[in-house]
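tool_call predict_complex ligand=pyridoxal-5'-phosphate
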Amino acid sequence: MTFSPSHNFALQLDAQDKLASFKEAFVIPDPSLIYFDGNSLGMMPKAAQSKSRQIVDEQWGRDLIRGWNKGWWDAPSRVGDKIGRLIGAAAGQTLVGDTVSINLFKLATSALTLQPNKKRIITDTFNFPSDIYILQGIKHLLSEGQRNMQHEIIRISSNDGDLTPDLAALEAAIDENTALVTLSHVVFKSGYMYNMQRITDLAHAKGALVLWDLSHSVGSVPVHLDDCNADFAIGCTYKYLNGGPGAPAFLYVNKNIQEKITSPIWGWWGQKNPFDFDLDYTPAPGAQRFLVGTQPMISLLTMEAALEPMIQAGMDALREKSILMTDYASFLTESWLVPFGFSLGSPVDSAIRGSHISIRHPEGYRINRALIEEMNVIPDFRAPDNLRLGFAPLYLSFADVWEGFDRIRRVLEEKRYEKYPKQKLAVT
Ligand SMILES: *Cc1c(COP(=O)(O)O)cnc(C)c1O
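tool_result ok
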């Protein structure tokens, strides 16, 4: 498509947008706010707002303990299966619970202890730092005492200024000694998206297992875990899934591997018959064994309601709009912001890009502050110089994108960022 920078052009795109009406499914108290941070914390769906009130007033308030038999106990697998529909996972493989970091700990530890003779773990420098910390912690844990496993963590980097990972180096690093390849499918800074099928095949060819972090993919790009024959996946529900702050994460374990592995955390929710209160642990069948303990039901059930608009819209339609939006945003960056010293920090080719883009500027941090504090635009900042813009196709219009970029341009034109200190706030 040939884009134009005119406001009218944005309005035309909106007129042709089949998903435009989904904006009405969200709570929007301030229509002039341009929210480019749906990739960090999604906006609140009206369905989630009313459901959370119902949960508090009726389920917790009136049902009390009876709630466990009225849809609480089985919520991790019921809601897991709903998320499974968004990531190409047949029922019985996806469970909701805990955090992404904890789920990574459980699944990666199981994967490594399943193959005690293989010592290599491969990830990249694009991964979310918490994912790398968890791997470092597992390596430390498994090197202690009798295990003495001594893993080596290899981090593949970039040779194009942190835009895309070095795929040739990745391919070369996966060898017969590799136990696990674990990557963020869409990376959090540049928005680069891996070819899941290709990397999974490469790893399997060498006998390695693959674990995908879908935190920036779920609800933003179609994912086909079963078709790719991925072994494991984890992901967030408070980003593009709009589940609310701290909503529990999910994990996926391919049915072909479920019975071969055990969780490193043996809790009663992962026990075969929890209400027998047997003093010895027997793992529950299937992925269920990766549950640990009682889950935050108010948050989990609120998140379940939040999925409704997304399931209705369907991932293919969302992806189509997301590509058009990120292409449009890249065009506006080139037309309006590059002259002010910005550069595009994301792939130009939409086939290898998720639903957010980074635009880079040496003054990125102060520009971000000016946008939030005086322009009513919310992006976020990721060091060293990335202003990150998330495009959640369910509730953003093309006119919103136009308006947001116009305000960014004004911050530069009027040098509004200069009055802010370079000292960073705690949360950026
Ligand atoms: C957001 C995000 C997380 C968050 O982890 P929590 O443990 O749920 O806080 C983890 N990994 C990636 C890639 C993320 O984008």
